[in-house]
Amino acid sequence: MKPVLSKGFFALLEEAEQAVESLTPEQLMESRGDDKDLLLVDLRDIRELQREGKIPGAFHMPRGMMEFWIDPESPYFKGIFAEHSRWVFYCNKGWRSALTTHTAMQMGVTHIAHLAGGFSAWVDAGGEVEEVPKR
Questions:
Q1: pLDDT tens digits, residue range 80-93?
Q2: Which residues form the Rhodanese domain (predicted)?
Q3: Which domain does 118 fall in, by range?
Q4: SS3 readout for the chain
Q5: Is the model more confident about 70 or about 3?
Q6: Were both Cys, which of 29, 76, 128, 132 would link to 49 (CB 3.0–4.6 Å)?
Q7: Domain holding 72: CATH number?
Q8: Residue partners of 3: CB distance under 8 A and separation at least 6
Q9: Which residues touch 132 (CB under 8 Å, ≥6 apart)?
């Protein structure tokens, strides 16, 4: 039996995209070099990174760990999030990153954005890509 949802992912995505700051690949390319306090966070599955590469210097965080890794009260907190005051999340198409950015905002994060169109848009815009070796 098909689940009955009161709100599907497209509705959640629309809400998130209205609430979050979205950067184009060109805006991100322009600001990356100037903003030493920027943490670029790749939310894709490790298999996606190994298959397609990642934006140079990006930190990998599986989307399912975000709430735990960014919260200083969590036993899973990652100190890299305390080292940077501005974060930009990205995924493949910009869907996961919009939803994740919206959730982080609900947790109180203020200096945050996501890459509109995701890694695919980055590549299409001629953005640099670095290989991620298989472990």
A1: 999 999 999 999 99
A2: 34-131
A3: 20-124
A4: CCCCCCCCHHHHHHHHHHHCCEECHHHHHHHHCCCCCEEEEECCCHHHHHHHCECCCCEECCHHHHHHHHCCCCCCCCHHHCCCCEEEEECCCCHHHHHHHHHHHHCCCCCEEEECCHHHHHHHCCCCCECCCCC
A5: 70
A6: 132
A7: 3.40.250.10
A8: none
A9: 46, 49, 50, 53, 54, 60
